[in-house]
């Protein structure tokens, strides 16, 4: 980059968001790491700064527009917005209630929409927005509300890309497969092991592998790519019997 660009990353206190903040800072961005957990975020950013990386913290609730706006106002411009904040919980379809479903949609969809919209309002031509969907958008059991939310993120990404195309703002999505994060580690150990066993690689992805794909879409040289969803899942979304 000829001049240092500024990237904002939501959900940056841990997991994929933290790995992305690290990777973008390593790539030369000034990174504003955003998360609602002040204590966890503070510790994560302190560690990144000890690595010599240009990262600052902003405590933000992605569902609260005012807090998102306040965070964006701390920098002179927005070149990249990565919407990595999200939640997951396990529930059978017949056991789900409206509150659990709405909470999933609030964080995963509204919590993507607000930061993306506010970032786009501040971007000039060449801006990049990266959303985080999931291989789960293709379907699955015991998390219908999560599937619905991540499928919505893919649709939202395409719609944003179409509307922002005249402004030359690129919008793309990364859809991770099963990844080793605090969120997936919250499952019972036997469930985590069962999930790993059915991965093509026999293990969960490292968050840094997902961050690598996010960094691709965040790079200035990818401005001509927009409206795409990249599955980063070791090939599991290909399906087939593998024989």
Task: Describe the overall structure.
The structure is a single chain. This protein is an alpha/beta fold. The chain has a single domain, classed as 3-Layer(aba) Sandwich (Rossmann fold), CATH 3.40.50. 43% of the residues lie in helices and 15% in strands. It contains eight helices and seven strands. It has helices spanning 15-26, 38-50, 65-72, 98-122, 144-164, 182-185, 189-197, 207-218; strands at residues 6-10, 30-35, 55-59, 80-83, 128-132, 170-176, 229-232. It has a seven-stranded parallel β-sheet with strand order 3-2-1-4-5-6-7, sandwiched between helices. α1 crosses α8 (207-218) and α3 runs parallel beside α4 (98-122). The longest helix has 25 residues, at 98-122. The model has no long low-confidence stretch (mean pLDDT 96).
Task: Give a quick precis of the structure.
This protein is of the alpha/beta class and 243 residues long.
Task: Annotate the secondary structure layout.
Blueprint: E1 6-10, H1 15-26, E2 30-35, H2 38-50, E3 55-59, H3 65-72, E4 80-83, H4 98-122, E5 128-132, H5 144-164, E6 170-176, H6 182-185, H7 189-197, H8 207-218, E7 229-232
Parallel strand pairs: 1-2, 1-4, 2-3, 4-5, 5-6, 6-7
Helix pairs in contact: 1-8, 3-4, 4-5
């Amino acid at each position: 980059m000829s001049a240092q660009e500024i990237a904002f990353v939501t959900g940056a206190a841990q997991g994929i968001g933290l790995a992305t903040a690290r990777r973008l800072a390593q790539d030369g961005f000034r990174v504003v790491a955003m998360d609602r957990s002040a204590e966890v975020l503070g510790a994560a950013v302190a560690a990144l700064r000890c690595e010599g990386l240009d990262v600052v913290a902003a405590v933000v609730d992605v569902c609260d527009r005012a807090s998102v706006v306040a965070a964006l106002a701390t920098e002179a411009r927005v070149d990249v917005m990565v919407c990595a904040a999200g939640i997951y919980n396990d529930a059978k379809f017949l056991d789900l209630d409206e509150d659990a479903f709405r909470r999933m949609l609030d964080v995963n969809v509204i919590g993507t929409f607000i930061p993306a919209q506010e970032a786009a309002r501040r971007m000039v031509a060449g801006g990049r927005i990266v959303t985080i969907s999931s291989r789960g958008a293709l379907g699955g059991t015991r998390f219908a509300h999560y599937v619905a939310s991540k499928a919505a993120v893919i649709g939202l990404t395409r719609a944003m890309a179409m509307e922002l195309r005249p402004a030359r703002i690129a919008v793309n999505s990364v859809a991770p497969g099963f990844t080793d994060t605090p969120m997936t580690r919250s499952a019972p150990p036997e469930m985590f092991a069962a999930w790993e066993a059915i991965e093509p690689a026999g293990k969960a992805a490292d968050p840094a592998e997902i961050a690598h794909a996010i960094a691709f879409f965040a790079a200035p040289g990818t401005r001509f790519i927009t409206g795409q969803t990249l599955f980063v899942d070791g090939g599991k979304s290909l399906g087939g019997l593998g024989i």
